[in-house]
Design a protein that fits this description.
heterodimer; A: 472 residues; alpha/beta; Alkaline Phosphatase, subunit A; eight-stranded mixed sheet; 10% strand; B: 589 residues; mainly alpha; two-stranded antiparallel ribbon; two-stranded antiparallel sheet; 10 strands; globular; DUF1588 (chain B); signal (chain B); DUF1592 (chain B); DUF1592 domain-containing protein (chain B); DUF1585 (chain B)
């Protein structure tokens, strides 16, 4: 049911169009050419993995300067070439905490791991969605000239509920990720890839309909609506006003993929995008689109979520031939409810999975580094952060979070370092709450609180201020 | 450095506030929130079971008219709070555009729509259904696709009221009036008629293909399908009558009727009746309610209600241990859903049965695979056929695999899931959610612990904290189903020992003892607790809103009326259309 581009192109020359009439419809207002983000601006990109990692094999052996050699043999070996552009801070714990440690916050450990991680907010007891904005959407609001949202993508099957969401535009308002790369691409391109005439036709129609619908909303709102009903209409109007974004870009890097790549993306069967066998293919497509959107200035922030909390695919590619899905393996058990048998060799399988994700992370870094900008690349101006729902999956641990940051955000962040924030102490000391990492990242990419540095993020009462240890 | 974390930390960390299961273990209507709830195969349940939108989230299946401030019903039932803008559900959207455009749509337009959240167990809550996030885009995509399909020559002829002549503008104006009346479910205002007719002259040149006439009509359809008057049911009536309530206009009531009973737009007869004032009286409403219920279109909302109430979507993600259940596969899971929906249709529409029949009728519909599961003799094929079941072993919806297999583990039954479902969905007395950090693993079988029941009792009934809810509220109605294994097959023995399916349980103030599931569901089918809970759930679904305190009077009155007539399900639906809360709107503030 998706609108296919070839359908437009087929008839493009068939109808003689009265151009002056199109002009009178004001389509140019509809196709915005203003850029969302300036060239050379800073960006925040979130690479989000679920179900934890094998903590024994994820990190380098010892804290200190990072080199390709220090990553050899770890799950991070695929990004060894980027050692000098990496920052691996260790010893942070999630806030609000897991394991029922914050007794007043609802949700099980998976719900918390997904909902807390980018928001540092508690979940709503009624819906189990987070009660505040996430760091990617916050950064987009601050950095995008038009206030447009962060790009929010997913790969593979995910829960449609709180276990399948990480990004929030506000209290209780999860942003549903797009899992279909062709729809992602169409949204990004707007009408950018079409024949000029077809583009004008579509733009003119959409603008007309938008005007008409907004007029209707206006007269409805003049009636005796309750506040809740009026808010519904406002929300609806916002939702369709966002659709006005037709053509974006910074004019330096084209907001379009190579036509051959675009054709591959278009050829994906939309019914297959959630299936395990497509996980790798879809993932690479989403990464290509995400990197392009960031590079061409369509948005300054974005996230990509792999699988789902308490879910995930059965990995059967790139040398993996697993029998059980990621969640089961994270518990080393043949059953999701832990009632089955232990899976022989599950530690090694988890390492394989972590390593495979490091390869995808590598692909994202490669793509961002392929776009030149100023004296460096888009990667240099970005903070590309690999988060995980949990640390040790079997324990559902919220302590000692595995976090990798690539790109120094234009020199703000320290690079080429593996830093132990808690100096070898037991992670149970809990001296470094992860909301301060979120604060650090927001400052790193240039967000401010009315011109002053951001000092707080997340739930009221959390510790404030960035981690000085992570600054260049 | 030491990074090892002791596993028991999680357990140590737990200092959960105690929530009692109410007095002697009953009740549970003190409005527990579902913060930590995850009643499917528990928190570790994989990429699968927890996706059910009826799980977790806001679980308000308790009857909220119980407790709290007493509401006086001296003046009879009065309308409850209802938004003026009610967005179509995704299913209603699909059914409506199919009726409006007279098209068979595959795939369904809503297949790519952003899913709605479930509130109080149903995904049609009027206050929660909003257009946000990418749904606006989804609607636009669908409108553009549907308008293109609608003006294909054969399709256009089906919705065009006239033969275009000249520039076609006269026929187009007629189209706007007639199609608009169906799309907005009321006649257009003169201003709307002008606006949409104007699109006809704008349309030509705006599409790469089609005649000028087709392009004009296509543009009208594309716009109407994105209008708020199409996407929402809009109720603007505002004049209170002498009783200080607002009577709904005829067209508003026509939409309430057709969306409750068909899940789709009113047909021409209903719109004409609305225009003629036929719906201004209860008799007029009743006559049309009965007419609508006699149409096959009435099956869709009835199926949708039972899908959500019985949590049938869980079959989509069902998994079973392949060693124990080699016969299990996706096709069998799909057949379980089909079986229950055919049974419901049979009871409601063919038998014109009552609530008790839904819970007790010892018949069902099976294909070859399901027949094998039931141990039925005889020839069965791919088609579903009606089959009589052993009335000693099977009775109605709750002894069907769609419930039994989805409320079980992959290798074993789960008295806890089944019992919690009974209390929450069937009796409207939901136990509070389990505390966080509990160990879901039952003790392994031993000399003393043989059956699943033994395991559950040992795990949940020793510790007084757990026993408060488990011993008399959750476990017994679950034990009643112990004759059915993880797939729903009958068994006399469990792990070599005879099954004990007897028990005594409590729901609110009602104490009930039973010998097995057939006995228990028979009692529930005849009980005031069971019927009122069924009614309360229909109230939520049928009116698209949760129960407010003032609604107690409406539910009391309906309950008494339906009890007198034996709780016939079609009569229940008719009754829902005759209440004051259905026919009127409350004056706000």
């Amino acid at each position: 049911m998706t609108m296919r581009r070839r359908n437009f192109l087929r008839g493009a020359c068939g109808v003689a169009v009265a151009l002056p009439f199109l002009e009178s419809l004001g389509w140019r207002r509809f196709i915005k050419t203003a850029r969302a983000a300036d060239p050379g601006g800073k960006r925040l990109v979130v690479f989000f993995m679920c179900n934890g990692v094998n903590m024994e094999t994820f990190f380098p052996a010892a804290a200190g300067p990072l080199t390709a050699a220090s990553l050899m043999g770890t799950s991070l070996e695929p990004i060894a070439d980027y050692a000098s552009k990496l920052l691996i801070p260790r010893g942070m714990h999630m806030v609000p905490k897991g394991w029922g440690q914050d007794a007043d916050t609802p949700g099980d450990d998976h719900a918390k791991g997904m909902g807390h991680k980018l928001t540092a907010e508690a979940l709503d007891p009624g819906t189990l969605y987070a009660r505040g904005i996430s760091v990617d959407q916050f950064a987009a609001q601050k950095l995008n000239a038009d206030g447009g949202p962060a790009m929010t993508l997913s790969v593979g099957w995910r829960h449609s509920n709180w276990l399948g969401h990480i990004s929030y535009s506000g209290n209780n308002t999860p942003v549903t990720p797009e899992g279909n790369p062709w729809l992602t691409y169409q949204d990004l391109m707007g009408l950018g890839g079409l024949d000029e005439m077809v583009k004008m036709q579509i733009a003119a129609r959409r603008q007309s309909v938008l005007d008409l619908v907004e007029d209707e909303f206006k007269s409805l709102k003049a009636k005796n609506l309750s506040q809740a009903d009026a808010q519904k209409l406002e929300m609806h109007a916002d939702s369709i006003r966002d659709l006005e974004v037709g053509m974006v870009g910074n004019g330096l890097i084209e907001c379009a993929l190579d036509p051959a790549r675009a054709a591959e993306i278009e050829a994906i069967d939309p019914d297959s995008v959630m299936e395990d066998w497509q996980f790798k293919t879809i993932g690479l497509m989403q990464l290509d689109i995400l990197a392009m959107a960031i590079a061409c200035g369509a948005t300054s922030a974005g996230s990509i979520q792999w699988g789902s909390g308490s879910g995930g695919p059965i990995y059967k590619w790139d040398g993996m031939n697993h029998e059980f899905n990621h969640h089961k393996l994270s518990h080393g058990n043949t059953k999701d409810d832990n009632s089955g048998e232990e899976v022989a060799g599950y530690h090694e399988m988890l390492t394989q999975i972590d390593r495979w994700h490091a390869e995808q992370y590598r692909h994202l870094l490669d793509r961002l580094a392929s776009y030149s900008e100023g004296d460096g690349t888009v990667l240099d101006n970005s903070a590309v952060v690999w988060f995980n729902e949990l640390s040790d999956g079997k324990d559902h641990s919220y302590l000692d979070l595995p976090v990798v940051i690539a790109g120094g955000a234009g020199g703000y962040l320290k690079q080429g370092h593996y830093i132990d924030l808690i100096n070898g102490q037991d992670p149970w000391v809990q001296t470094h709450p992860h909301n301060r990492l979120l604060i650090t990242l927001l400052n790193a990419v240039g967000c401010t609180d009315n011109g002053a540095p951001i000092t707080q993020f997340g739930r009221a009462g959390l510790e404030q201020g960035e981690f000085a240890e992570l600054l260049a | 450095m030491s990074r090892h974390l002791p596993r028991y930390l999680a357990a140590l960390a737990l200092i959960a506030p105690a929530i009692a299961c109410g007095g002697g273990g009953g009740g549970g209507t003190d409005g527990p929130t579902a913060g930590t709830e995850n009643p499917g195969p528990s928190e570790g349940s994989a990429g699968t079971d927890t996706s059910d939108p009826t799980e977790g989230g806001t679980d308000t299946s308790a009857d909220p008219t119980d407790g709290g401030e007493p509401v006086k019903c001296d003046e009879g039932p009065q309308p409850g709070p209802m938004p003026r803008l009610v967005r179509l559900t995704h299913q209603q959207y699909d059914l409506t555009v199919a009726d409006l455009l007279k098209l068979n749509l595959d795939p369904l337009p809503s297949a790519e729509f952003l899913a709605d959240p479930a509130v109080a167990g149903f995904d049609n809550n009027a206050a929660q259904m909003v257009v946000k996030d990418r749904l606006g885009r989804d609607y636009r995509r669908a409108a553009e696709r549907l308008a293109a399909e609608a003006v294909a020559p054969a399709a256009l002829a089906a919705i065009l009221p006239c033969q275009p002549e000249g520039d076609g503008s006269q026929c187009a104006a007629q189209f706007v009036a007639e199609f608009g009346r169906r799309a907005f479910r009321r006649p257009l205002t003169p201003a709307e008629q002008t606006t949409y007719s104007g699109l006809f002259t704008q349309g030509p040149g705006l599409y790469p293909e089609g005649t000028a006439f087709e392009q004009g009509i296509r543009f009208i359809i594309e716009a109407m399908l994105q209008s708020g008057h199409f996407l929402y049911r809009v109720e603007l009536s505002d004049s209170a009558d002498s009783d200080q309530v607002i009577p709904l206009g005829g067209y508003e009531l026509a939409s309430r009727l057709s969306y409750l009973l068909w899940g789709s737009m009113p047909d021409d007869l209903l719109l004409t009746a609305a225009g003629a004032g036929e719906l201004d009286t209860p008799e007029g409403v009743e006559a049309h309610a009965r007419r609508l219920l006699d149409s096959p279109k009435a099956e869709a909302p009835v199926a949708d209600f039972h899908r959500q109430w019985l949590e049938l979507d869980k079959v989509d993600n069902l998994q079973k241990n392949g060693d124990l259940y080699p016969e299990f596969n996706k096709a069998l899971a799909g057949a379980m859903r089909e079986e229950t929906q055919r049974f419901v249709r049979h009871v409601v529409f063919e038998l014109e049965g009552d609530y008790a029949a839904l819970l007790t009728a010892p018949v069902t519909f099976v294909n070859a695979e399901l027949a094998a599961l039931y141990g039925l003799e005889g020839q069965y094929g791919a088609e579903f056929t009606e089959a009589a079941l052993d009335p000693q072993k099977r009775a109605g919806i709750l002894t069907q695999p769609s419930f039994l297999a989805t409320h079980a583990y992959q290798s074993s039954s789960s008295p806890i899931f089944r019992g919690a479902f009974m209390q929450k969905q069937i009796l409207c007395t939901p136990p509070p959610p389990p505390p966080g950090g509990i160990d879901p693993n039952l003790p392994a079988p031993s000399d003393d612990i043989v059956t699943t029941r033994d395991q559950v009792e040992a795990h949940t009934e020793q510790d007084p904290y757990c026993a408060g809810c488990h011993k008399s509220v959750i476990n017994p109605p679950g034990f009643a189903f112990e004759h059915y294994d993880a797939l729903g097959k009958w068994r006399d023995l469990d792990n070599g020992a005879p099954v004990d399916a007897s028990g005594e349980s409590v729901s609110g103030a009602w104490v009930f003892a039973f010998t097995d599931a057939v006995d228990m569901v028979g009692q529930i089918g005849e009980s005031a607790n069971g019927t009122r809970c069924y009614l309360t759930n229909w109230f939520r679904y049928g009116y698209g809103r949760d129960v407010a305190p003032i609604d107690r009077c409406t539910i009391d009155a309906l309950d008494a009326e339906l009890a007198a007539s034996g709780y016939n399900i079609k009569e229940l639906l008719v009754s829902l259309t005759l209440t004051r809360t259905f026919r009127f709107r409350a004056v706000e503030e």
